[in-house]
Specification:
Blueprint: H1 3-23, H2 30-42, H3 52-61, H4 68-88, H5 101-120, H6 127-152, H7 161-187, H8 191-219, H9 223-227, H10 232-240, H11 243-256, H12 260-269, H13 273-297, H14 304-314
Length: about 325
């Protein structure tokens, strides 16, 4: 079984949880409810990682379904965060005329905050853990926002592998650490196991950001280069380069926001064979760390292998040196 298999099996139940959360807004909040529904329709997530809390809970107990409300929390959180990320990048969003940008902004606040809190405070969640789950939600928002602001302020001239990983650990690791810790708390896991699950979520979040970075390059959109985002791969390129090449890379980064040619040349550099070999090794280290934590945790052998395969999926090396377009100079690093 893969995480996609589990999602196909349980997606209708996850959708029902989200619909129930929307219904809690009531008739007096119809405009907000409709706006959130529109946001959810137009911001559907490409990868259904809402099953992650189900897998954690099932690894602890053998049963994924009691964590179904947390799957809804995870989906709502990321729907909100992805919209806010688009706004931070200055792109806005196309909601097919259903919502103005300001309406969508308000809807995203409700989607990522009010609705998850309502779910946590519902009768579906034991009263004994509601406070702890609420704390996880609020703390994750603060840490993720801090990571996102570090990302927005990123400066390739000062960036290192370590500084980018610190940023990724906040903006991507915190929400995954939040939801894995929530699922562990809900399962009744002791504190030491909950902390291991939290750390697993943080490491998985770093892996998933590296996966997402590669997808952006392969898509040809190069949104990270357009936005001036300091990705891990870009930091590797600058950190490993000789002084003359580093100066050239920094110049391309400065021009990339307004120059298609600069973005294309940077994309070629980021596919250099030596750079990708180092990048592959670094991904392998994060993959090893995630698997090491899972070995420490142990648990139900019907579901633990699904998590292992999910780690392997997130750890895939998507970029290949032979994809370098003609005219590139892959031997510069």
């Amino acid at each position: 079984m893969s995480y996609l298999d589990l999602h196909r099996e349980l997606s209708e139940e996850i959708d029902s949880e989200v619909a129930a959360a929307l219904a809690q807004l009531g008739t007096s909040s119809r405009a907000t409810r409709d706006a959130v529904a529109a946001l959810l329709r137009h911001r559907q997530l490409k990868h259904p990682l809402s099953v992650l809390p189900l897998l954690v809970h099932a690894t602890e107990t053998g049963n994924p379904r009691p964590a179904m409300p947390l799957a809804a929390v995870h989906l709502l959180w990321w729907t909100s965060a992805c919209y806010l990320d688009d706004l931070a990048d200055g792109h806005g969003t196309d909601l097919s005329g259903e919502l103005s940008e300001n309406e969508a902004l308000l809807a995203s606040v409700v989607t990522g905050n009010a609705l998850p809190i309502q779910i946590i405070q519902s009768q579906r969640i034991p009263e004994s853990v509601r406070g702890a789950l609420t704390s996880e939600l609020t703390n994750a928002w603060v840490i993720a926002a801090d990571g996102q602001m570090a990302d927005m302020r990123g400066d390739i001239a000062r960036a290192t592998r370590t500084s980018v990983v610190d940023t990724y650990r906040g903006k991507s690791g915190a929400p995954f650490g939040m939801i894995t810790a929530m699922a562990a708390i809900l399962s009744g896991a002791p504190d030491e196991r909950t902390e291991l699950w939290r750390e697993f979520g943080y490491v998985f979040g770093i892996l998933w950001q590296l996966f997402n970075d590669q997808e952006d390059i392969l898509s040809g959109r190069h949104e990270d280069l357009l936005n001036g985002t300091v990705t891990y791969l870009l930091a590797c390129a600058a950190e490993d380069a000789s002084p003359p090449v580093r100066a050239h890379v920094l110049g391309l980064c400065a021009a990339a926001g307004g120059s298609l040619a600069a973005r294309a040349e940077l994309a070629e550099i980021l596919r250099g064979p030596a750079l990708l070999r180092r990048y592959r090794d670094d991904i392998g280290r994060f993959r090893y760390e995630a698997h090491h934590i899972l070995r420490q945790i142990g648990g139900d052998e019907s579901y633990l292998p699904v998590l292992r395969r999910l780690v392997d999926h997130a750890s895939r090396m998507l970029l290949e040196a032979d994809l370098v377009p003609a005219g590139a100079a892959p031997g510069r690093f």
